[in-house]
């Protein structure tokens, strides 16, 4: 399994990481090394599916009540708020 | 220590002050803490002393101070995961394990690899941690700070987390005892996750006995964690007997034969002979799949890790980079270190459509295979005995390439993949540095580990040794 | 307009539960911003989802009501994308192993096959102001089911009819309150005309918008294809004010969700016992109920359809009949005056089925006229009192006292010599005029049949005055 530089760049976009040229190149090499290493798994025979019920689902039961945070707590956590709402810059969505 | 507190010969406040003073004085040397919480620790200590004065019944660990790895959520105390991204994040809730240790004064939050991604504690945004045995060396990782504080006598016990050896390898590097419970024994609620299907919180202390006490307190089903086991907590103290005469212990031959450091494999072999002398039956077993193990772990842990780190976007909490463009706001807020970025890339790639066959699925299938192989082994033996790590503490400035760094975890990973309990205890030394050995048991059989570990520590004194660099 | 191609709909429905899907925050509407939020639905580090059993029950009921096949093991997945309303950077949904598959909704345009039904959590709410976007996380974590049709709808009108039938079933089975204007029902449409790419339409805020946007797209794309232009795969949003579709920026759209089986949740096991219990909780659904109304009560298909539009109306009808009323008059009353008064809105208390039956009985006996009955009904709505108590208060009983009617009629005749003369002279309309006056005099209460008889009697006795 190979990984092209373009794929590395796209992966960076998916992960929302800003990658500069030097890092991009470095990562391309390192990712290729990793993929070569893990390639050994392709040779393993197919096992059972992930849908094992061994550790199986349990009968649903009543949940433990957890109280809500106060608006003040939410505001204290957020980097920027306005009248109790979390505020981010407006991005123009539509043309 | 607990006895002294209970009998009243020692006050929690005295004890806590002692450990706080020591922690503060050694902080500059080893950088084992990210935050030291003096006021909160003393407040808890005073509360415990008062309750004891009133003659109230208290838990065994009441008044015994502790350190917590900084990826464990503590209400009102900064929880950073050693990352700039969470600098200043103050959680509004305690992890369940923390609630269960409410009577233990919190000395501080221990330093670690950023987001638990590492085996060196070098990747912390708050500076690397030094090994108390040699401060120019790594204490291991990712729970390096948690191990160092115990080794340096700054805390009687600490909690770490283990995803691929992050408790056991640092415990080995620092000459202390580290315990990873079975997956599901300890609630993960409040543990900032790396890999949700592999993580467990566990104790690090000087002895198996101490670990047993902590385990007794923190284990148990938590309805707030759907993956926590609905099993009663056994009486771990009852497992602390000096008797291994009924135990069959297996030594994985491929691992011992191929260990990069012959001193380590020799120490493990010697330990096996000692346990044999104590009555255990020793045999050699086969545990191949070394490369498959590391490959499976890399795929699963990085994929789940990338997913768990998707929430760090600076919107509702954490550090935010302001920009009129959402894209830049995200990329500017996600200022992770190099190791985290590397793993995010691998994890994101292996989940993405561009990777072709789902690599993550391949990893999970390999995991199944390794788990069933281990189950077969445990049909023949009660315990597996192997090294905790393939190296002893390496130098901080030794630049290990990423794959070699991951190789640190090679012996520890199978226990995480299969959800089995495993423990690391000191068993030797090399050039003045601790060597640790690891024991693995079947799922939910922590008692076997405790018994064998206790027996080992009654017959040897490796766990009592202290770094010369640290005066007691 | 029929499309040469296929239309599919993706509907998100908010379930009627007390608490959110993965945490115990309340689901009540209209609370202050960020006051119905906890570490789980805010996505705080270290928080873990815990599945709401009530949501499973309601979703299961929906699956059964729609004739789906329930999978006895289903799982949750993480669907990753970055957006400010998505606190964890992923949504917990069911992608690979949904709760249910298949199913069907019948519409007047033919039945529509469903592809799947699954559980997922809602995101927060964004509000755009001049320079900022504000986020309220109260909605984050609300329980939704996503219902997806097969690509089998063939016209915009069928799409609308589908939504109306779907809503009816969901309201009957108490799944959701299905209010598009409040966001408890949302719909995206997709359309593929033959020869063109798959187009998705978002931002549809009403059933009408669904219909109009599809009509617009069918027309627009057919034109393009006829002229030999290519219709690309794209996502559009519907602009209500301009009444047209507008392309959405591609970068916002689905790239790669990197689905991952949710490791924090166990597989969801639905065994036969849970299914049976859910089936017991299912009420009789609209179509079977209408069919039964036709058979049991001898109603026309049209009547049956109207009466079963809502469960409340259908329940009311059956209870009125059970209280002794005859089916046809009961149907008429409910379809007619009762519906009209309900739609009028305002402060009102719905009369009990028993009091409606009472009213019908009074009408049947002749104690009140039809006009009076309307008046009584209006008062029943306004005051919540029974027909009897209203009548005794307002003396709205039908006047059937012969003597009183005779006096009344005599007075009218005496006071209106000209119309009387006209009538006697052969003008039949004059009779109607006199009847009207007499009716008015009686406050609308006069028993019409009796009054007529009396009028005729008295008039024929009249001397012919000249």
Write a compact overview of the structure shown:
The complex is a heterotrimer of chains A (95), B (472) and C (466). By secondary structure, chain A is mostly helical.
Mean pLDDT of chain A: 83
Q: Report the mean per-residue pLDDT of chain C as an integer.
A: 89
Shape of chain A: flat
Task: Enumerate the spans of chain A where pLDDT stays under 50 for 5 or more consecutive residues.
Answer: 50-55
Shape of chain C: elongated
Please, how many domains of chain C?
3
Word description of this protein:
The complex is a heterotrimer of chains A (95), B (472) and C (466). By secondary structure, chain A is mainly alpha-helical. Chain A is built from three helices and two strands; from the N terminus they run αααββ. The longest helix of chain A has 18 residues, at 21-38. With 472 residues, chain B is α/β, with parallel strands linked by helices. Chain B has an eleven-stranded mixed β-sheet. In chain B, helix 2 (12-30) runs antiparallel to helix 3 (38-53), helix 5 (144-151) packs parallel to helix 6 (168-174) and helix 10 packs across helix 13. With 466 residues, chain C is an alpha+beta fold. Chain C contains 15 helices and 18 strands. In chain C, strand 14, helix 3 and strand 15 (234-239) form a beta-alpha-beta unit. The N and C termini of chain C lie far apart (71 Å). At the B-C interface, helix 10 and helix 11 of B face loops of C. Strand 2 of chain A pairs antiparallel with strand 10 of chain C, so a sheet runs across the interface.
Helices, strands, pairings?
The complex is a heterotrimer of chains A (95), B (472) and C (466).
Chain A lengths: L4 H10 L6 H18 L32 H7 L3 E2 L2 E5 L6
Antiparallel strand pairs in A: 1-2
Chain B lengths: L1 H6 L4 H19 L2 E4 L1 H16 L12 E4 L26 H5 L5 E5 L33 H8 L5 E6 L5 H7 L2 E4 L19 E6 L2 H11 L29 E5 H6 L3 H16 L3 E5 L4 H19 L17 H8 L4 H14 L7 H22 L2 E5 L14 H6 L5 H6 L3 E9 L2 E8 L5 H14 L13
Parallel strand pairs in B: 2-3, 2-4, 7-8, 7-9
Antiparallel strand pairs in B: 1-3, 4-6, 5-6, 5-10, 9-11, 10-11
Chain C lengths: L1 E13 L38 H13 L3 E2 L2 E2 L2 E4 L9 E4 L6 E2 L2 E4 L2 E12 L3 E4 L3 E5 L6 E7 L3 E3 H17 L12 E9 L5 E6 L2 H20 L7 E6 L4 E4 L12 E2 L6 E2 L2 H10 L4 H12 L3 H7 L3 H12 L4 H18 L8 H13 L4 H14 L3 H8 L7 H14 L1 H8 L4 H13 L6 H14 L5
Parallel strand pairs in C: 14-15
Antiparallel strand pairs in C: 1-11, 1-12, 1-13, 2-6, 3-18, 4-5, 4-17, 6-8, 7-8, 8-11, 9-10, 13-14, 15-16
């Amino acid at each position: 399994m190979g990984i092209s530089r373009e794929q590395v760049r796209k992966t960076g976009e998916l992960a929302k990481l800003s990658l500069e040229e030097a890092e991009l190149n470095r990562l391309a090499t390192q990712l290729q090394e990793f993929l070569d290493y893990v390639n050994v798994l392709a040779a393993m025979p197919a096992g059972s599916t992930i849908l094992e019920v061994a550790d199986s689902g349990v009968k649903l039961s009543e949940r433990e009540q957890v109280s809500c945070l106060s608006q003040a707590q939410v505001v204290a956590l957020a980097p920027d708020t306005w009248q109790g709402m979390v505020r981010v810059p407006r991005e123009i969505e539509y043309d | 220590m607990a006895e002294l507190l209970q009998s009243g010969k020692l006050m929690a406040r005295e004890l806590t002050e002692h450990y706080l003073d020591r922690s503060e004085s050694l902080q500059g040397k080893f950088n084992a803490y990210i935050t030291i919480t003096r006021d909160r620790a003393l407040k808890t200590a005073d509360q415990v002393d008062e309750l004891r004065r009133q003659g109230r019944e208290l838990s065994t660990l009441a008044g015994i101070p502790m350190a917590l790895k900084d990826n464990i959520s503590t209400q009102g105390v900064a929880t950073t995961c050693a990352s700039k991204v969470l600098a200043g994040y103050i959680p509004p809730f305690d992890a369940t394990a923390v609630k269960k240790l409410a009577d233990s004064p919190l000395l501080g939050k221990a330093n670690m690899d950023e987001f638990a991604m590492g085996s060196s504690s070098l990747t912390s945004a708050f500076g690397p941690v030094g090994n108390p045995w040699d401060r120019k060396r790594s204490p291991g990782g990712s729970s390096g700070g948690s191990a160092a504080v115990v080794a340096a006598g700054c805390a009687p016990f600490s909690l770490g987390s283990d995803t691929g050896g992050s408790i056991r390898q640092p415990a080995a590097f620092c000459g202390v005892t580290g315990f990873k419970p079975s997956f599901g024994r300890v609630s993960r609620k409040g543990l900032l996750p790396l890999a949700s299907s592999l993580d467990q919180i566990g104790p690090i202390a000087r002895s198996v006995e101490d670990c047993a006490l902590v385990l007794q307190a923190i284990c148990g089903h938590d309805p707030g964690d759907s993956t926590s086991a609905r099993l009663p907590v056994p009486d771990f103290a009852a497992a602390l007997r000096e008797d291994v005469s009924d135990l069959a212990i297996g030594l994985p031959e491929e691992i011992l034969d191929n260990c990069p450091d012959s001193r380590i494999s020799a120490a493990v072999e010697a330990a096996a002979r000692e346990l044999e002398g104590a009555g255990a039956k020793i045999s050699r077993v086969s545990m191949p799949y070394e490369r498959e193990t590391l490959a499976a772990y890399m795929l699963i842990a990085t994929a789940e890790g990338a997913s768990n780190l998707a929430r760090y976007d600076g919107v509702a909490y954490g550090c935010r980079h302001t920009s009129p463009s959402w894209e830049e706001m995200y990329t500017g807020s996600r200022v992770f270190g190099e190791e985290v970025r590397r793993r995010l890339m691998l994890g994101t790639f292996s989940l993405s459509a561009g990777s072709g066959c789902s690599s993550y699925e391949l990893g999970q299938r390999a995991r199944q295979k390794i788990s069933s192989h281990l189950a077969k082994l445990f049909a023949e033996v009660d315990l597996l005995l192997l090294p905790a790590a393939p190296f002893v503490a390496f130098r901080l400035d030794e630049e290990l390439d990423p794959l070699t760094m991951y190789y640190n975890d090679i012996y520890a990973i199978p226990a995480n993949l299969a959800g089995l309990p495993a423990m690391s205890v000191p068993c030797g030394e090399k050039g003045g540095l601790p060597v640790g050995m690891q024991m693995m048991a079947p799922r939910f059989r922590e008692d076997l580990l405790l018994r064998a570990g206790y027996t080992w520590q009654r017959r040897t004194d490796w766990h009592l040794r202290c770094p010369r660099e640290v005066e007691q | 307009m029929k499309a040469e191609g296929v239309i599919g709909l993706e509907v998100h429905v908010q379930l009627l539960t007390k608490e959110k899907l993965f945490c115990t925050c309340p689901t009540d509407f209209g609370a202050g911003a960020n006051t119905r939020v906890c570490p789980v639905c805010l996505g705080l580090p270290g928080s873990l989802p815990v599945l709401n059993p009530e949501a499973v029950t309601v979703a299961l009921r929906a699956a059964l009501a729609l004739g789906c096949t329930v999978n006895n093991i289903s799982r949750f997945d993480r669907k990753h994308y970055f957006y400010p309303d998505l606190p964890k950077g992923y949504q917990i949904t069911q992608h690979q192993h949904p709760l249910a598959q298949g199913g069907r909704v019948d519409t007047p345009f033919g039945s529509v096959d469903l592809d799947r039904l699954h559980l997922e959590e809602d995101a927060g709410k964004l509000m755009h102001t001049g320079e900022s976007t504000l986020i309220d996380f109260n909605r984050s974590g609300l329980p939704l089911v996503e219902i997806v049709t097969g690509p089998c709808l063939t016209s915009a009108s069928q799409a609308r009819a589908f939504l109306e039938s779907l809503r009816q079933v969901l309201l009957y089975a108490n799944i959701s309150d299905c209010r598009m204007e409040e966001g408890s029902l949302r719909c995206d449409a997709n359309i593929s005309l033959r020869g063109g790419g798959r187009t998705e339409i978002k931002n549809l805020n009403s059933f009408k918008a669904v219909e109009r946007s599809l009509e617009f797209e069918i027309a627009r794309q057919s034109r393009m294809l006829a002229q030999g232009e290519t219709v690309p795969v794209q996502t559009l949003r519907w602009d209500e004010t301009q009444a047209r579709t507008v392309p959405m920026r591609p970068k916002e759209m689905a790239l790669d969700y990197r689905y991952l089986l949710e490791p924090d949740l166990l597989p969801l096991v639905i065994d036969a016992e849970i299914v049976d219990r859910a089936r017991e909780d299912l009420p009789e659904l609209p179509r079977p109920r209408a069919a039964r109304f036709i058979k049991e009560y001898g109603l026309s298909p049209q009547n049956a359809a109207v009466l079963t539009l809502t469960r409340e109306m259908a329940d009311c009808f059956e209870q009125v009949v059970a209280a002794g009323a005859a089916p046809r008059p009961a149907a008429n009353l409910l379809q007619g005056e009762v519906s009209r008064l309900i739609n009028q809105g305002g402060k009102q208390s719905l009369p009990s089925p028993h009091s409606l039956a009472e009213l019908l009985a009074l009408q049947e006996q002749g104690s009140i006229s039809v006009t009076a009955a309307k008046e009584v009904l209006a008062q029943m709505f306004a005051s919540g009192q029974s027909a009897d108590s209203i009548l005794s208060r307002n003396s709205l009983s039908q006047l059937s006292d012969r003597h009183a009617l005779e006096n009344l009629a005599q007075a009218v005749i005496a006071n209106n010599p000209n119309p009387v003369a006209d009538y006697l002279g052969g003008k039949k309309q004059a009779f109607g005029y006199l009847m009207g006056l007499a009716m008015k005099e009686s406050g609308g209460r006069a028993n019409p049949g009796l009054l007529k008889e009396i009028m005729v009697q008295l008039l024929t006795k009249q001397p012919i005055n000249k």
